[in-house]
């Protein structure tokens, strides 16, 4: 079949040459759009999806290989993690109730003070501030401690607190020197001229020390008290 016969069959043979040129021009313009919409764009979409699946499969394969390599060291890692957790638990106070936990903390601080030549004047329990971060299952125990010693004694005491076998944290600290005041005469008046205040070399300190009780000791008691209320 010739082109002329095909044009006659589709009804275009009766068109003028000008109309046929316009139709051919329209086909030339429309052909790239049809080619892009029907062929190129679906092919590119399929190619992108294939690349995404390939990257996903490569990631899964890499993770599987890493798990296979780590499988030989996993028992040792679990054993080390368990030992570390047990060591951390051993640094917490295992008391039956808050009063007993404070008593154990008091005994530890008295031991550290004796080793550091520090005179402890007062120790009392204080509540943590309401804005303090709360760790589930761990109850903080705080003591406000006041004492006296020289510079070496105070420094040694604070260092021993930081290095204690218990997990202790210093929350607040204030230190001031003890000043010897001038003596007064029998009439209650200062000497004339008044003697200057003389540092004695003794320091007074106030510190808040925080320890932590294990869940098996404090958390159960606190929960039972809250349930009772």
**What is the arithmetic mean of pLDDT?**
76
Major β-sheet annotation: 4 strands, antiparallel
Shape: elongated
Strand-residue proportion: 15-25%
The chain-level structural class is alpha+beta
Would you list the SSEs in sequence order as H and E?
Answer: HHHHEEHEEH
Side by side, the strands of the main sheet go: 1-2-4-3
Folded structure, characterized:
The chain is α+β, with helices and mostly antiparallel strands and 229 residues long. The protein has two domains: 1-72; 93-228, Ribosomal protein S6/Translation elongation factor EF1B (Alpha-Beta Plaits), CATH 3.30.70.60. Helices cover 55% and strands 21% of the residues. It contains six helices and four strands; from the N terminus they run ααααββαββα. The chain has helices at residues 3-10, 17-71, 74-90, 98-116, 151-162, 215-228, and strands at residues 119-126, 139-149, 169-180, 198-213. The chain has a four-stranded antiparallel sheet with strand order 1-2-4-3. The longest helix is centred in the first third of the chain and has 55 residues, at 17-71. The protein is elongated and about 135 Å long. The protein starts with a helix and ends with a helix.
């Amino acid at each position: 079949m010739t082109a002329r016969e095909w044009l006659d069959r589709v009804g275009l043979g009766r068109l003028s040459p000008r109309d046929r040129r316009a139709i051919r021009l329209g086909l030339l313009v429309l052909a790239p759009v049809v080619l892009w919409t029907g062929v190129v764009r679906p092919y590119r979409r399929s190619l992108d999806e294939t690349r995404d699946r390939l990257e996903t499969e490569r990631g899964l394969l890499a993770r599987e290989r890493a798990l296979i390599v780590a499988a030989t060291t996993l028992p040792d890692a679990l054993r080390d993690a368990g030992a570390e957790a047990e060591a951390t638990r051993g640094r917490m106070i295992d008391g039956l109730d808050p009063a007993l936990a404070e008593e154990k903390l008091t005994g530890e601080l008295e031991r550290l003070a004796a080793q550091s030549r520090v005179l402890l004047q007062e120790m009392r329990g204080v509540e943590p501030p309401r804005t303090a971060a709360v760790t589930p299952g761990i109850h903080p125990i705080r003591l406000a401690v006041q004492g006296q010693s020289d510079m070496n004694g105070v420094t040694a005491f604070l260092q021993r607190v930081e290095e204690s076998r218990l997990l202790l944290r210093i929350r607040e600290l204030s230190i001031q020197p003890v000043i010897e005041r001038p003596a007064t005469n029998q009439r209650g008046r200062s000497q004339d001229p008044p003697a200057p205040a003389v540092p004695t070399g003794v320091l007074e300190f106030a510190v808040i020390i925080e320890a932590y009780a294990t869940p098996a000791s404090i958390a159960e008691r606190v929960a039972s008290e809250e349930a009772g209320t």
